[in-house]
Amino acid sequence: MSAPQVEGTRPAAARPGTLHMIGNAHIDPVWLWTWQEGFQEIKATYRSALDRLTEDPDFIFTCSSAAHLAWIEANEPEMFAEIRARVHEGRWALVGGWWVQPDCHLPGGEGFARQALYGQRYFHSRFGRTATVGYNPDSFGHAATLPQLLLASGVTRYTFMRPGPHEQALPGRLFWWAAPDGSRVLAFRIPYEYCTWGKDLEAHIRKCASDLASADDRLMCFYGVGNHGGGPTRENLASIHRLSAEPELPALVFSAPDAFFEAADTARAGVWHGELVHHAVGCYSAHSGVKRLNRHAELALVRAEKFATLATTLAALPYPHADLDRAWQRVLFNQFHDILAGTSVESAYDDAAHEYGEALSIAQHVTNAAVQRLSWRVTVPPEDGARSFVVWNPHPWPVRVPVEHEVGGVRDGFTMTDEAGRAVPAQFTRSGATVSGWRRRLAWLADLPAFGHRVFTIRPGTAPDPDVETQTPDPFVLDNAALRVEFDPVSGGIARLLDRRSDSEVFSAPAAVGVVLDDDTDTWSHGRVRFDRVTGQFGHARLSWLERGPLRRAVRSVATYGRSTLTQDYFVYSDPALPVEVRVRVDWHEARQMLKLRFPLHLQFPQVTYEAPYGQVSRPGNGEEYPGGRWVDLSGVHRPTGELRGLGLVNDAKSSYSVTESALHLTVLRSPIYAHHDPYVPAADGDYRYMDQGEQTFTYWLWPHAGTWRDAGLPRLCAALTEGPVALPETVHDGPLPAAQTHASVTPDHVVLSVIKRAQDDRGVVLRLHETHGRPTTAQVSLPFLERELEVDLGAHELVTLLLPDDGSAARRVLLTELELDT
Description:
Elements: E1 18-24, H1 35-55, E2 61-63, H2 66-75, H3 77-89, E3 92-94, H4 109-127, E4 133-136, H5 146-151, E5 157-160, E6 174-178, E7 184-189, H6 202-209, E8 218-223, H7 234-243, E9 251-254, H8 257-263, E10 270-273, H9 288-315, H10 321-333, H11 337-340, H12 346-375, E11 387-392, E12 399-408, E13 414-418, E14 426-429, E15 439-448, E16 452-460, E17 477-479, E18 483-487, E19 494-499, E20 504-505, E21 513-518, E22 534-537, E23 539-548, E24 552-561, E25 564-573, E26 580-588, E27 593-600, E28 603-612, E29 615-619, E30 626-627, E31 631-638, E32 644-651, E33 656-660, E34 663-670, E35 694-706, H13 709-712, H14 714-722, E36 726-730, E37 740-742, E38 745-747, E39 751-758, E40 764-771, E41 777-783, E42 788-794, E43 799-805, E44 812-814
Parallel strand pairs: 1-2, 1-8, 1-9, 2-3, 4-5, 5-7, 6-10
Antiparallel strand pairs: 6-7, 11-16, 11-36, 12-15, 13-16, 14-15, 16-37, 17-18, 18-19, 19-20, 21-22, 21-27, 23-24, 24-25, 25-26, 26-35, 27-34, 28-29, 28-31, 30-33, 31-32, 32-35, 33-34, 38-41, 39-40, 40-43, 41-42, 43-44
Helix pairs in contact: 1-3, 2-3, 4-10, 9-10, 9-12, 10-12
Protein name: Alpha-mannosidase
EC number: 3.2.1.24
Pfam families: Alpha-mann_mid (PF09261), Glyco_hydro38C2 (PF17677), Glyco_hydro_38C (PF07748), Glyco_hydro_38N (PF01074)
């Protein structure tokens, strides 16, 4: 049902354009308050909106965020019944279709997919409809791939406000926004503000009216008390009625976003290709903890769903729908833009940690239940003195990855083999059980079949086991057939990275160096697009050997700056097909400063490419701060050789980067005051709480390569780091599953099958595929565990969701919501 509209006392054609008056209440459920207070404010605001709807028959209220309505349904069912009646009447307009209004750069692609899955399905189940207008007025920027994700969830229009005209020029207030795959939505940038605090709207209306270009032009004008809720007031509504009689003003129409877009003239709308930046660049790195938790929780749940689906099919383990729904909803709520962006009060992050912890715990329990059930059905043959592990690969393509697991009772001399008796490189590494000589940590290199498993067996033997604590004389060098790493004794970084495959130097100066920059900005870094005032760097490094074994060698670097310590453990594996691995521990005790790791490359004319949500985006190397996903790549002309070469950097926790000429910088952390917002000026002797104090850890991989990021296979490489295998010690038994088996696979290698899950309505299995290289293709999907073989046509950059019904009927394409395409 389209929303009713009320025109002013004069015909709209006689007016200088039309303003669609959008009554809303932007509510931050968390910001300068915790979610418990936000919960109460949502109730108070919705009660006020319902009262205004009763008092004024012309008023229309616009509402987003399924999570808010779910709270009302559970806590105030009588109020929810009133809301449902107003929705069916057409005066409570549902927009957004997502669980909350998230940060629109930092979630992974699957995070956005689940915002739509849970938000739109909630709207559909409670109100019999889904949203067609995406709605993120206060989010701090918007990823280039969002139009495809919006269209794939049934959303054809989009409303936002940031970045503003002073931050990014666009074709106009109304424009077509196109994604790399060609998808496009009709987008509208809100003029001036998404909420109002004054009682009388005349000044705000006149300001918005100044943006009207002609008598037939239309704009949305948002009004209503916001942020801490409140919504449209009696005074707001009275002023609209009064001003509608003013002949020099535009026609004022009580309206909703759907009605505006239906009436909008799209003939003059230009097209915008790409992302929407820059606003609040400090949000890409503020509060490392919440960003790390979000990434880990998203990926842990995706992995848990894969194994749960396999265990349901092969071992009749009930699929834990309710547990996974609860976990996902915890993650999605904490992707709200003021939580995930790091701009809320400190106490809000205690709550976020608890909720992410619940999600991670559920993912762990679901994964363990599935892998335990499956491994019990894998044949493990008897052998005196042997110990076995079953290792599971969550990816539907083969991987060769290091695996670590604690093991008890294995002596120094041992051998390790796979199920076919092939020797596997393995060694002991540093154990968490430092008080026990019996319990040790084993590391080995696992070749794993696509979305499958393999049994590895440890046997007593005579192979030497090097002591991981043994100190080896200088020089500290890590090398294999492909790479040679030498270290800078001052900074503790990499003095030299030689790519032996091309006999080329990767870095032009010491790399992986901890650089400290001045950062006197507020939490958002308002008014700043780059950080380039270097105040110092970590130094006084101490180098020591950690490991020298048949699997890998490792050097530890410990450097200091002020009261802070940067520890980097560098690993180079004997297998030349593996990247340089660096495990980082930062103990940070500085205020209003930023830490970056610097990687200067021997490149000319570098192209910078970043992972975006279900895609990639290229940006200039202009020193500006940009958001990115798990990987970033610099490729260009290698100065000494003239060849096209590059470096891929993959990490499991960080999301902020900058590139200056040919130097890549990974932003590790920044330490502004919690919830500090300009124009407040902190007192020099003030007592404040600063972000990212204390210890944090993360891991990154460095992969020098020929060609570009496509040649390096970075989308699949990053999956190997961030969604690792699951290893389970297993006892001797027979079972219906062999010691090694593939359960699903996909080709070619530029197609990623990212999701395997049971459908929300439990009528089949859902797959999600993504073409990563911008090359149309036909994917071959083999699903032995379902006894299905599929051919799937994908366009360049296309994201496809398939439903495979349990009745064996043909696979069909569905929306991200798992509703039919024409629903």
